[in-house]
Write a structure and sequence with these properties.
Layout lengths: L17 H51 L16 E9 L11 E4 L7 E13 L24 E10 L12 E9 L1
Antiparallel strand pairs: 1-2, 1-3, 3-4, 4-5
């Protein structure tokens, strides 16, 4: 026979007790604590990946700019006696005293007061003669001031290096190198 009119349901069907609720909350907390590091790692990896993608795109753009220049352009001409022509730039993000400033981009050298320097970009130009390809390696560049008739190749190398210290939360610095040979 079921409960009489006016009587409540049996106590075993009343719902969760406080102890059962606490145990369920503890289980949920343990699961959440196991998942939180995964989200933190994903956030770090995504940030580092976006940073490297941005730097890679800037490195490729710089290399493409040099590829578009005529072979004897001033930007590809070495000083007399020099075996390399190097240009250093730094990617600074915003200014140190202003948030959300549009003062970010590539600056010559290491900019002071330009904000957080994330990447340095070194563009190096070297020149070679056709005979330098005999051994399959370009190891002995021609000096600037060499007669133009003997200069057949110019190597343009763009090296990007992250300014992040090894103990950074986003991981250690990275190095990306692009290289192209520009024939005469």
């Amino acid at each position: 026979m079921g409960p009489k009119q006016g009587e409540g349901a049996p106590s075993s069907m009343a719902g969760f007790s406080v102890v059962e609720s606490l145990i369920a909350a503890l289980i949920l907390l343990i699961i959440a604590l196991g998942i939180i590091p995964l989200f933190a790692r994903a956030l770090r990896d995504n940030t580092a990946g976006a940073d490297a993608t941005q730097a890679t795109n800037h490195g490729r753009a710089s290399l493409e700019e040099y590829q578009q220049l005529p072979f004897n352009n001033q930007a590809l001409t070495l000083a007399p006696g020099a075996t390399t022509l190097a240009r250093d730039e730094s990617w600074a993000q915003g200014t140190r005293d202003a948030f959300g400033d549009d003062d970010e981009g590539w600056w010559p050298g290491t900019p002071s007061g330009r904000g957080l320097v994330l990447w340095t970009r070194t563009t190096t130009v070297r020149q070679f003669g056709m005979n330098d390809l005999d051994d399959g390696r370009l190891t002995d560049p021609l000096a600037g001031g060499t007669q133009p008739a003997f200069v057949h190749l110019k190597e343009v190398e763009v090296r990007l290096e992250s300014e992040r210290p090894v103990e950074s939360p986003l991981g250690p610095g990275r190095r990306i190198v692009f290289r192209v040979l520009k024939p005469f």
